[in-house]
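Backbone-to-sequence.
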């Protein structure tokens, strides 16, 4: 397992965010889903070694991640809201990441920059980039970092349909290469097409359910309802993975 947590909690003063998260994740693409403010980014920051848990166990590559260089050198956490220095150019932000990760793959960065048509924006200061351009920079950094563990916090924000497809096209070979990829997102329809599993974090700060695409085969969609396939009326359609995720989110 790349990530193991057991009874993981994180409180901010009186605010109890994570309340006993039990999770085991290995190679593949995993979605981290949940309503606003349930603690997805907090969980990613703990796994990345940037934040200490309040209690419980968290292990990455079998080690405690907090401030642990052996974990942090092989883990990349990035996303549209990552606080890269605003006065640096986009090119310098990417160069900083290249120097940071020994596993950096410049060919992946070059191909992504070309496919995103990001060249023209590279000389722009990071703080002046659009949200979509920031998302593209974070995707370049995440995929090219080559780290065994990649944590993507809201990678789709601001991306148009074309660039979302570019992202998928480059993401899938990364998962096939054995990396563990965890992606926090609200874009369920898009994400469901690529996920190997979906972890749904509930409002009570625990994992409500981890489901895989095959789980959807047991359900059908009848009007607004998800019903077991054996009880489905004649007009119901077969449920898809995003239907199942939506349903679990509704009740979480
Ligand atoms: N450093 C902090 N100090 C105090 N509270 C914090 C801190 N970081 C996060 N929180 C609180 O923890 C809760 C969870 O925040 P987090 O960003 O992890 O949620 P999220 O699931 O990623 O949300 P969203 O989907 O809206 O991005 C929020 O109530 C937030 O205000």
């Amino acid at each position: 397992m790349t990530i193991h947590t057991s009874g993981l909690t994180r409180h901010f003063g009186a605010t109890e965010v994570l309340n006993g998260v039990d999770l085991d994740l290995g190679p593949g693409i995993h979605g981290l889903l949940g309503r606003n403010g349930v603690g997805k980014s907090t969980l990613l920051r703990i796994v990345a070694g940037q934040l200490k848990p309040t209690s419980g166990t968290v292990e990455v590559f079998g080690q405690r991640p907090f401030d642990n260089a052996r974990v942090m050198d092989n883990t990349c956490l990035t996303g549209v809201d990552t606080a890269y220095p605003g006065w640096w150019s986009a090119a310098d932000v990417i160069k900083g990441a290249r120097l940071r990760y020994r596993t950096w793959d410049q060919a992946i960065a070059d191909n992504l920059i070309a496919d995103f048509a990001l060249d023209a924006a590279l000389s722009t200061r990071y703080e002046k980039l659009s949200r979509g351009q920031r998302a593209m920079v974070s995707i370049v950094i995440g995929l090219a970092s080559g780290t065994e563990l990649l944590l993507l916090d809201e990678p789709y924000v601001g991306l148009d349909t074309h660039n979302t497809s570019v992202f998928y096209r480059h993401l899938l070979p990364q998962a096939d290469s054995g990396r563990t990829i965890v992606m926090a997102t609200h874009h369920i329809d898009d994400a469901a097409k690529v996920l190997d599993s979906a972890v749904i974090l509930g409002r009570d700060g625990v994992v409500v359910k981890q489901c895989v695409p095959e789980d959807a085969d047991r359900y059908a969609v009848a009007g607004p309802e998800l019903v077991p396939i054996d009880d489905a009326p004649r007009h119901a359609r077969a449920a898809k993975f995003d239907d199942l995720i939506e349903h679990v989110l509704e009740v979480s």
